[in-house]
């Protein structure tokens, strides 16, 4: 213990005490920079994952429980462990995924998620389980709405969310008091209807899908108890000193004020949701931090006669609770401000952030897009700030009006020793109306583009007496609109002329330049008008003013969505098979949901292991003049720095063309290109040293966009085209000739597990062992050998599982391993690295952006990578499902100075089909016919040839399209939409019906092969090895099913360890949706060999068990191991002659989607999707349904909210979940119905008649895009605009809003001036 300062009575200790999973933990002087996530993983609790390090994905979610003596209650909060400082958990109980259950004894949450197919890659699953667990600890019987809301801080990239929600909703109130729930597979609903939970999509009613599952009863009384000793724990002033930072933890306001006197520059930390990001990603340094999360005086609240006073550091979730109580405590006319704050808090970040963040943090940080500050600015009377009065050391307080608080961008009027203590929120008065609005790219857990807080007080005759209009996102700070406020005073609310004048005044007052930071100038200005429009009519409705334009239309709030529901119907079952065709859960699901599944970075540290950090280019294109690592090498704990000069073998590599370098030697061609590798004792030391490496450049001109590449004739080598018929003659004979353009954005893979690798040099013969998160172990092995100058037989690459891949780890996983291998080679010690999310996005490439001038261009980036093959697939899919007799397609692969774009689920196919469907939509618009009818008129027929001369067989698209049309009630719903749109001016609905055709096979001939090894041991157990990689798609599960079925043994007796290049050589990458086809047949062939070897013993002793027969065969010296091999028959395509069979078969489908858009904001929601996929005879329907739903939702993201953006200097803007938005739990269809098609397949030669399903459904996500386009068309017609239009993908809220082209948008238009440049670019 020591005193805070001489003569002061405050003393501190440096011992941290908390409980972890029920066990007491004491740590002497922990490093203040250590996060809770870093600590729990360092002690072996690796179930908690790092997904983004900014609190945006929820993979790191844990439960933190604390005792509140003022209420005598225990508080349970889900928390982002990646942001929570370890020092913040003093006196608390931390529960990780390992603390609630394990494989042998799972918690009901874990069991239900696993058994109801809620885990695919599994990397996000522990965090999702912990969010649900936290909800149940606070509310053992939640509503379905509360369940959906509890996941607003979690992301999943694999499942499409539906099965997770199904599992979670078994705990809801609708499930009644029967906690022992059964999922029944009965084909007849009637027999089980009385035993259902009451949900229309109850798992009991899902035809033949889930099988018979008995769930463990959930008993809230059996949960891990809060440690009794902590209920009497007396918190003390703490002080911790680390390598870089000193941190204090005061427990009283006076302690805090004294600390601020001594350390006026100290940074106050509460939830660490801002400071944690600043220190990690912006590399800001705060030598002294003060954690204020345990000061009770800053968390109080009080109802006063004229308003509510809250402690400024109350958590946002507690603030929500207090506001709800206030709404009940005060009179209805007094709660307008409280309701508005609740409206915006509902969409403020996610639960994990709201549980720790505070109003004080929001206010003092002063973000220009704060969700709370505009409301405070327009309604709040005062902020109370306090400081220590010298020399008396007594507390002094002063009041500050919010209008005077913020002085500039993230600046305020606080002196250095002042803290924000209280906030007074007044009650609204009679005649006062207050509303808050927010628009973001995604409704849940997203930062605002523009937000606002409006207040107006009306007197007699609805004359405006007071007005306050505040906005965020329109300046460097939240601002009022005083001129507009002055304009409205004394005028009659409800008069149309007054509204028009007010909108004009706002437009004049709130200006934005084209190059304004944040971009989207026209859209942001249109939101100002849109929000005011909503507010005007909302208040008018509240005071009883009748408006002539809109009748009963309700457009003033947001589009509210219902609780989602789903239905999954299997078209045909495999009754003649025992195991193949069944809905067995993913074999690793229980390990994944309990945190026991091991991913690359979860592996225990090896003796002598070091950490590698990449040194990356910070410019888009330049010559490297000098690399100076001297300062970095001087740092303690640094073991080496390696560049191109240190590569022992070949520094060149590439998946097709060797046009890349392991380390850039003379020139860099994009931001994020690898220049060097720092190797150190720890990640923290390595990263600090990497920042000290100085690189001198001679900057060269760079190219970023497709349009710039075309202008400068910058292309990678690619000279292929496809054609059929006579184009010239076709044009001459056409009644109409249309021209147009389709622009399609890229997409970030955002697998939850970033690229990770561990390279281990062996002590003899220059052997290297690699553990990598890669879809391509053989390529990793071969290139690593080349780089090190050794033979491939001395390198082994092992892959246990991936936390998602989606093509992003097919080739772009390799550069990290190559860099680490150089360091490991020189140091003769293991070297590990798991990329941070921002590094991964900058380095690894994305889905290719495309431009179709009805000629195809893709943006390959700086190296060719797989881009030519991506273009080939786009060219072969640009027909989608339509017969076009005269057809020619040319492709160009643009060479630019962005990261090297790469494979992504669909591999160019979705882009080709998107161009085709856009063409059809524009044709339908211009001809004035229904686009669904146009599609049907032009479908291929059985036996017709594609434009690459492949004959279509087993062609079911017309039939399944008709099935979707009928099951979705398309015709009637089209009429209903017409009716809805005629009655609603500012809300429009749209409907689309989209087919897909996806070719299955690698277009590279030699990759269509696979090997397997099956071993039978004397105890009757079976070990299967094959060349495919498990990344969540259920490949290993299917392989076990095939082996068990073929050998006629229980699946429990069959095991699969890992994928390894020293067991199965020369493997093809796990990609192209053919891994089950290739590896499945290889496993089958190996098993058939063993069946034939065992046949004599089976026939001789039919009554014996499998184990006994195996022993007999062993004693008779029979080989009980077998290799299996398979190569896809029939396929080969000659591009020069345009001859041969390109694809082995096609997987097809169709989807009908209905959406609703808010034309004043560009917001949208998916009302319903009906989807049918033709997947043949599935090996595992549950896994394939999961693939269908996951691919669909990923496709929805691609064409709606996932927008990849670059700064003009080449840096990536969308480097994490803060700026790059994936679909969340409440972005999926509200009603999601999935059917598998029942058909005949006389020409299908695949394993068990199954079809590849990983990629084909993704394009059906575009049915949302085309439904949005249809809704926009209705909105344009309402504005008397009947011109055809091109909607750029993705259909973001900005693009939706601006495409509506109403008077507000036209009035908000910002013209680009000659000297102005885009603030941000879509490349």
UniProtKB/TrEMBL annotation:
Gene3D superfamilies: 3.10.20.30, 3.30.465.10, [2Fe-2S]-binding domain, Aldehyde oxidase/xanthine dehydrogenase, a/b hammerhead, Aldehyde oxidase/xanthine dehydrogenase, molybdopterin binding domain, CO dehydrogenase flavoprotein, C-terminal domain, Uridine Diphospho-n-acetylenolpyruvylglucosamine Reductase, domain 2. It is found in: Peroxisome. The keyword Metal-binding applies. Its cofactor is [2Fe-2S] cluster; Mo-molybdopterin; FAD. FAD binds at residues 268-275, 348, 358-362, 371, 420, 438. The keyword Ribonucleoprotein does not apply. Signal peptide: none annotated. Keywords: 2Fe-2S, FAD, Flavoprotein, Iron, Iron-sulfur, Metal-binding, Molybdenum, NAD, Oxidoreductase, Peroxisome. It is an enzyme of class 1 (oxidoreductase). This is xanthine dehydrogenase. It comes from Acaulospora morrowiae.
